[in-house]
Design goal:
0% strand; 19 helices; single chain; mainly alpha
């Protein structure tokens, strides 16, 4: 058996072996995170009930609307640039950290100001939003994560996150046990972000790197922002059309409906780590391959699309079929979530192919299309939610999400000439037999 595995490892080649090793680490991380989410997250949902869980979800969704400002759209660009020019890492990482720190401060001020204007008499909601938004400042340490991703060494970020996750999970269980108030669950989210930042620093130093060598460069700042601003605007638009449903349910004081809907969304998104793991692991390799062999790059991207298709179907079919049984874990209070889940989980094609297309846009230097499409999608989603939520509640929000994703992520690729190459990738992936053959051929 060991000889067979060794032979397979030799056939894969060093580049692919490194990618698969990175995928394995990320997969392990997300399996652990998923396990904690199922055991602890669902326990918290049961304890809070639809109303309080809906209010917490509203606060999280509201802050997420501004999260693109906190990240400054730098992730993929920084990873790409360091992969191409590792000798510039200290300048790139230092500048990225500074920009994200400033972005976190702006996010905190914006969210607290806007929620105070929208809900001046709702102290609980304002405190929830303020505590959660404070974590945006400490997300600046994601710059360290960018470094490890650029080197296809995600095992260190896995170790950092999981060392914190187990501690935080224990604290959440303790909060449920002592019947803690809702604000405590927002507070532990802030603590988690801070501890992850500290863990990142530890592993960065452990691998022989030094943060004190980072330096902020105004010239590098201008270069990054000149390329990242479409991503920031695109990210804002993405969060508008991905979180508008939850924000609007909360604004309409439909907290119970939001609780049902948020429970279905949370369960659907348990496997969102699959496309992100693959994307984070393969992105540096695809970027390098694009420069060396364009045809081979297209072939590999086709296989990437094929895998995304199987990820989607492999998750959507069983969850949709067994949704009534799945939500029983949450108790009778969440029974309505089962029907919502059976429909909503099919919207995960938007996550899978959205991630793949963003990878394509970044490598091809076509980020402007991401901006255009997400703006269109956000407008469409807001209109559909305004029409459907007042009458149909959680089901209306679900329908709005499905229609928006289908148009923006799938249909538009066949309508715009410049996007048809990506549309052809999706079209070919629909032939599941040929897609499976291409994936099998990758490891022969």
């Amino acid at each position: 058996m060991l000889n067979k595995l060794a032979g397979l490892s030799q056939k894969l080649g060093p580049g692919l072996r490194q990618v698969l090793s990175n995928v394995a680490w990320l997969f392990t991380d997300q399996i652990l995170q998923m396990g904690l989410g199922l055991v602890v997250g669902l326990w918290v949902m049961r304890y809070l009930g639809p109303d309080q869980f809906g209010l917490l979800t509203y606060a999280l969704a509201f802050v997420s609307l501004f999260s693109a400002v906190a990240s400054m759209g730098l992730g993929r660009i920084v990873i790409r640039d360091i992969a191409r020019n590792p000798e510039c890492k200290n300048e790139t990482l230092g500048t990225a950290f500074g920009l994200q720190f400033i972005g976190g401060l702006i996010t905190l001020v914006l969210t607290v100001t806007v929620i105070s204007l929208l809900k001046p008499n709702d102290n609980l909601t304002r405190w929830l939003v303020g505590i959660i938004a404070a974590g945006s400042i400490f997300n600046a340490f994601e710059a360290i994560n960018f470094w490890f991703q650029s080197q296809v060494q995600s095992k260190y970020t896995v170790l950092a996150k999981n060392s914190v996750s187990f501690f935080v999970a224990a604290v959440r269980i303790g909060l449920v046990t002592i019947k803690a108030p809702l604000l405590a669950f927002a507070g532990i989210r802030l603590v988690e972000v801070v501890l992850v930042g500290i863990a990142y620093i530890y592993f960065y130093r452990l691998t022989g790197n030094q943060i004190k060598l980072w330096r902020f460069s105004w010239e590098r700042c201008r270069e990054l922002l000149s390329e990242s601003w479409p991503i920031v605007l695109s990210g804002l638009a993405v969060y508008v059309y991905s979180k508008t449903d939850q924000v609007m349910l909360g604004m309409m004081n439909k907290n119970a409906e939001l609780g049902y809907y948020a429970a279905a969304v949370k369960i659907s998104e348990i496997f969102d780590f699959l496309p992100m793991i693959l994307s984070n692991s393969i992105f540096p390799k695809l970027t390098s391959l694009r420069e060396k062999n364009y045809q081979e790059y297209l072939n590999k991207f086709q296989i990437y699309s094929d895998i995304m298709m199987f990820f989607w179907l492999g998750v959507a079919i069983p969850i949709s079929l067994f949704s009534p049984l799945i939500v029983q874990i949450l108790g009778e209070k969440y029974a309505k979530s089962g029907a919502v889940l059976a429909i909503y989980v099919w919207a995960q094609f938007g996550s899978n192919f959205g991630v793949a297309r963003n990878t394509y846009f970044t490598i091809e230097g076509q980020l402007r299309y991401g901006l255009y499409l997400t703006v269109v999608g956000s407008i469409l989603n807001v209109v559909l939610n305004l029409l459907l939520i007042p009458k149909y509640g959680a089901f209306g929000a679900t329908a709005a999400t499905l229609l928006t994703y289908f148009y923006v992520i799938i249909l538009v690729n066949f309508l715009i000439k410049e996007l048809r190459p990506f549309g052809r990738l999706i079209w070919r992936s629909l032939n599941l037999y040929q897609a499976a053959c291409r994936i099998r051929g990758l490891v022969k």
